[in-house]
Amino acid sequence: MTDQGLTHAALPPSLIGRTVLPSDARYPQVRHGFAHRGAPAAVIFPESARETAAALAYARARGAVVSVRSGGHGLSGRSTNDGGVVVDVSRLDGVTVLDRARRLVRIGAGARWGKVAQDLAAHGLAVSSGDSGDVGVGGLVTAGGMGWFARRDGLTIDRVTAVELVLADGTFVRADAEHHPDLLWAVLGAGGYFGIVTAVELEASEAGEVVFANLVFDAGDAAPLVEEWGAVLAAAPRELTSLLTLRPAAPGRPAVAHVAAVYAGDRPDSAERVLTPLLGLGPLLHQEAVLAPYQALVPVSGAPHHGRGLGVTRSGLLDRLSAHTARALAEGLASGQVLMGQLRSLGGAVNDIDESATAYSHRVQNFQLLSATAPERERFLDAHWARLAPEVNGMYLSFDTRRSPEVLAEAFPEPALSRLRALKARYDPENVFGHDFPLR
Length: 440
Ligand SMILES: Cc1cc2nc3c(=O)[nH]c(=O)nc-3n(C[C@H](O)[C@H](O)[C@H](O)COP(=O)(O)OP(=O)(O)OC[C@H]3O[C@@H](n4cnc5c(N)ncnc54)[C@H](O)[C@@H]3O)c2cc1C
Description:
Layout: E1 19-20, H1 27-30, E2 42-44, H2 49-61, E3 66-69, E4 85-88, E5 95-99, E6 104-108, H3 113-121, E7 125-126, H4 137-141, H5 150-153, E8 160-166, E9 172-176, H6 181-190, E10 196-203, E11 205-206, E12 209-218, H7 222-235, E13 240-247, E14 256-263, H8 268-279, E15 284-293, E16 312-318, H9 323-334, E17 340-345, E18 367-373, H10 378-388, H11 405-411, H12 416-427
Parallel strand pairs: 2-4, 3-4
Antiparallel strand pairs: 1-2, 5-6, 6-10, 7-11, 8-9, 8-10, 12-14, 12-15, 13-14, 13-17, 16-18, 17-18
Helix pairs in contact: 7-9, 9-10
Bound molecules: flavin-adenine dinucleotide.
Residues 33-34, 67-75, 77-79, 89, 109, 130-132, 135-136, 138-140, 142-146, 191-192, 196-197, 398, 434 line the site of flavin-adenine dinucleotide.
């Protein structure tokens, strides 16, 4: 459908006042995502599950392509399109504590994780989500969720006890251990293919202050630094989760490695013991460590999206961080063609979960690797990735901009992919969701 002539008068009454059309002043602020530019015919902002179903029915009746958006930070998942309808659930952003004793919380899919952290802090609770407070609940909780407490608490999806969603036929369902458990399994890793999630229930953790360290190293000799970072993390207690970002040299500064690390505890002596080995990774340019409440690590900027994001990315999971991988990463950066390399520590509680428990089934790997560059340098990124590929074991779809079929096989290794396809045939036979990266 290309519906550029759509007018407010043509909308069903329940969606008037909820819809932004290309002729509206707000349209430039809502048309794009973080990583993708778009020109949708309409962006609809439902304020309830019922309105979400109405928006979907409206789009389907017009034969429109449907994109689902929560926080708009999708890299692989496209939450905008050209000429279709975007159902943007950002107004479904309530955060409620259902049962403080059991730490059970209910979160609207449209909330940003930074708001979730702020709202839950008032109750002394926290949910490990990711490193960005701007990322939306809906996109992350339907994919995985590698957050600052990943090694202590697992992925965000590992804490989910129920999801509520509108299916392709407009039915509203709650999926939990007793009701539609197969749908719950599918949503926890591949939710973008199954419906529009309106809310989730999770078991949060007790929140306290944490130690957040920021270290910057000269990465002129990046390979040993990367390898040593991997060794420190492999030996560290589960309270430590870290993110290593490598950037090539730029005018006026050397290549740098930025190590962000969270020690999920408030005892400075324990934190110092765990963080100190990181100080020896290489020549230090800057160091700081602060005791901070969790919500301070994930502020919300709320800036509108421009669709330029991180360029093109490749993502893969690693069982271990070898000398080969460290060298290949360092060479990619030194070539000047790869503009960012990033490693996240996993393992710990992430790997306590059985691989068949959620559609995200990677439960033996210990690191997540991402390489990024500008779109015009994609062929260099491919060559760089080919060097890394022999040690890559599966991938997290959320960090990769590729959409070729083999990517799905890496993201959902068998038997997960076949099970997802069978469920897709049952719940979304006409492929309304995830149309741009078909599961079937
Ligand atoms: C700057 C940045 C930092 C990031 N940091 C982390 C991190 O630390 N850890 C981590 O795990 N990931 C991280 N990510 C990846 C992020 O989790 C995914 O990109 C996620 O999909 C973004 O969610 P969103 O709601 O903001 O995205 P959107 O663009 O709104 O959605 C992306 C896709 O998710 C699906 N989706 C979104 N909302 C719903 C819904 N309500 N129901 C069903 N499907 C839905 C759709 O398929 C949609 O196309 C980061 C991404 C960026 C850009």
